[in-house]
Amino acid sequence: MTAFVPAWWLPGPHLQTAWGSIARSRRRVAFVREVLATPDGDDLVLDHVAGAAGSPRLVVLHGLEGSSYSVYVQGFLAAAARLGWRGTALNFRSCARDPRRLSRMLRNRRPRLYHSGETSDFDYVIASLASREPETPLLAIGASLGGNVLLKWLGENPGQRMIVAAAAVSTPYDLAAGSRHLETPLGRLYVGGFLGTLRPKALDVIERFPQTAARIDRGRLLRSLSLWDFDDATTGPLHGFAGAEDYYARSSSINFLGRIQTSTLCLSAQDDPFLPAGVLDRARSAASSAVDFVTTRRGGHIGFVSGRRARYWAEETSLGWLQEKLGAR
After folding, report:
1. Are 154 and 160 spatial neighbours (Cβ–Cβ below 8 Å)?
2. pLDDT digits (tens, 9 = 90+) for 5-56
3. In sequence order, which residues have a C-beta less than 8 Å from that of residue 163 and are 6 or more positions away?
4. The pLDDT of residue 176
């Protein structure tokens, strides 16, 4: 594994974090879309990247308010395609984009959204893919929120044999610490972008499913300026938690790292603007021996941009590590 050397022309965590969304294409891979019916009467949208029959399949989980068209998801899938692998991007509920107009998110049919600790949809997708092609090796990568979901699922299912190896990039291991860390002037810029789409989604659920109105405090939802406020008023009550504190305590992947038995790579940067650096030391200490923990001094949040012409170290490193684990089976 080569050491990460940040691009000299992207100093600081915020430029590293923002660069990809500004400069990278959201159409690097061609998708074949599948709408998978769920046991509770809703839909999950999967976007597949085709390849040779029987070749390994990489399943990618996006971050908060991301989708299969997020630039890092496209980057992971493009890197997998170069290795001859197939790919699948899971769009969490309410996050699938209309391929004709990426600004338009598709509605789901049940009165729920998604959250950092919701693993049942991922479990259903993995089980579905494994049952279709039992001999196909499955690998997984989660970024940010998707990393938390992936690590939590691995800890919940220590004896699983469906996923050969996994990687998590820029995971917010301690959700409460991450939420509080973003309550700064710069942090509120990131949060404002998330709330700009989270609020309308929650309001849409209230309008279409009036029975949920009793669970969500609409006034607090509209006034929310932090992730903690939004999660306390909306995410928690909507998904069966007492509030933000309960949601964070029960969903943070740091509490599941010690149970993981699947070979797993965790990549994080100490200057990640979404998480206090001290959390990384606690997460490393909590992790089982199956987890390889790699922490860089710099890199931002799902940034890790290096070289004169923008190479994406986390993507190259994650895919190389997964390829090595696959070959060692």
Report:
1. yes
2. 999 999 999 999 999 999 999 999 999 999 999 999 999 999 999 999 999 9
3. 59, 126, 138, 139, 140, 154, 262
4. 98
Q: Is residue 272 among the annotated active site residues?
A: yes
Active site residue 14: no
pLDDT, tens digit, 9 for 90 and up, residues 75-129: 999 999 999 999 999 999 999 999 988 888 889 999 999 999 999 999 999 999 9
Cβ neighbors of 145 (< 8 A, separation 6 or more) are 61, 62, 63, 64, 66, 116, 172
Q: What pLDDT is attached to residue 100? A: 87
DSSP bridge partners of 140:
59, 166
Give catalytic status of residue 48 as yes or no.
no
Q: Which domains does the chain have, with CATH numbers?
A: 13-174+258-327 (3.40.50.1820), 178-251 (no CATH)
Exactly one of 48, 62, 115, 301 is catalytic; name it: 301
| Torsion sign over Cα 149, 193, 77, 298 | negative
CA pair distance 231, 254, nearest whole angstrom: 19
The residue annotated as part of the active site, out of 94, 144, 251, 252, is 144
